[in-house]
Amino acid sequence: MSQNDLIKTIRMNYLFDFYQSLLTKKQRNYLELFYLQDYSLSEIADTFDVSRQAVYDNIRRTGDLVEDYEAKLGLYKSFEQRKLIYDEMKKYTNDPHKMNAYIQQLEDLE
């Protein structure tokens, strides 16, 4: 797996976590098998007795859909921003001034 594929897989896993409740059962199944369980398109097609092309099309469309949800709702972006702040906070647990500044940054994200 290339570095770009790995980055896309990680991103899709996060997007799936945030937006799976907005997807149909079939969309959830396909994305979960492809990105989380690392099934091939052929394995998914065999599992659901559909063509490999149908699986590919569904995964592509569903990926576009969760990217659209992210563009509109920004849950993953907010998660990433909070994670960066929390990581920085861990470095300054003994510095109340820095901690207060990071707490303010977190409050500003809301």
Write a structural description.
It is a single chain. This protein has about 110 residues and is mainly α. It folds into 2 domains: about 5-75, Arc Repressor Mutant, subunit A (Orthogonal Bundle), CATH 1.10.10.10; about 75-110, no CATH class. The chain has helices at about 5-20, 25-35, 40-50, 50-75, 75-90, 95-110. α1 (about 5-20) runs antiparallel to α2, α1 packs across α4 and α2 packs across α4 (about 50-75). The longest helix has 22 residues, at about 50-75. The protein is elongated, with a radius of gyration of 18 Å. The mean pLDDT is about 90.
Name the features.
110 residues, mainly alpha, Arc Repressor Mutant, subunit A, 2 domains, 82% helix, elongated, UPF0122 protein QQM35_07460, RNA_pol_sigma_r3/r4-like
Quick recap:
This protein has 110 residues and is mostly helical. It has helices at residues 3-19, 25-36, 41-48, 52-73, 75-91, 96-109.
How much of the residues is beta strand, in percent? Answer: under 5%
Order of helix and strand elements from N to C terminus? HHHHHH
**Number of DSSP E strands:** 0
CATH superfamily of the largest domain: Winged helix-like DNA-binding domain superfamily/Winged helix DNA-binding domain
CATH architecture term of the largest domain: Orthogonal Bundle
Count of helical stretches: 6
Radius of gyration: 18 Å
Number of domains: 2
Protein name: UPF0122 protein QQM35_07460
GO molecular function: DNA binding
Function: Might take part in the signal recognition particle (SRP) pathway. This is inferred from the conservation of its genetic proximity to ftsY/ffh. May be a regulatory protein.
Keywords: DNA-binding
